TrEMBL record:
PROSITE patterns: GNAT (PS51186). Residues 1-160 form the N-acetyltransferase domain. It comes from the Bacteria. This is GNAT family N-acetyltransferase. The lineage of its organism: Bacteria, Pseudomonadati, Pseudomonadota, Gammaproteobacteria, Vibrionales. Its EC number is 2.3.-.-. GO terms for molecular function: acyltransferase activity. Keywords: Acyltransferase, Transferase. The keyword Transferase applies. InterPro entries: Acyl_CoA_acyltransferase (IPR016181), GNAT_dom (IPR000182), N-acetyltransferase (IPR051531). It comes from Vibrio barjaei. It holds the Pfam family Acetyltransf_3.
Amino acid sequence: MTIATLRTVLIPYTDHLESDFLMLNVCAKNRKHMNGPHTLAKARTIFQSILSDPDIYAMAVLDIRTRDYLGHIFVDRHASSEGELGYIFDKQYWNKGIATEVLRAFIPDVVATLGLTKLTANVDTDHEPSIRLLKKLGFEQIGHAKDEHGPYLIFQSTFGAVADENSEHESLSSTAFLDSNHRLGLKTQIHK
C-alpha cells in the first residue's frame, strides 16, 4: 500500500531503500534528538527488522515528484491494540511542514490497518519542534521519564474511544479530522 500527500508518497520498505535508511540514521544531526546516531551495523540490523518483524509497520517517505528519500515513519506494535509512533526526517527537510503532512496521512492509516486504540510517542524534553508537532496532531503529554540517554516526555493519543472532555486538543480520531471514511480529510490518496 502507498499513501500520497500533496508533497510526499509513503511506501513500504524494500531492500533498495536500505542505503537511504542507513544514511539517515548514522547522521549525528538527523538523530540529535533520538539518542544519537546509530553505527552502520546497528542501523543495518534495524533495517532488517523493519523488513521482517510483523509488529513494525514502517514506511519510507519520498518526495512525490523527485522520489528523493525524505525520512522514515513507523509504529512498533507493543500489544494487540497499542503501538509506539516514531519518525525521523533528514535535516534538509526540517521546518517545512512535511512531518505534519506525512503524519496526518500515516496515523489514521496505521490505526485502521493495525486496529490500534492507543499510540504513544517519546520525545526528548528539549525537542520543541517534535513536541509542538505531537500536540498539533492531538497527542497529549501523559508523563515523563529518564533513561541512559536522558530525560524524555511521553505523549499519547487514543482512537475509537470516548475523548476526555478536559482535553485541550482534538485527536486525529475526532470528527474534525476524519472524513466519512474515517481517513483524514486532507488531500491524500491511499492505494492498496
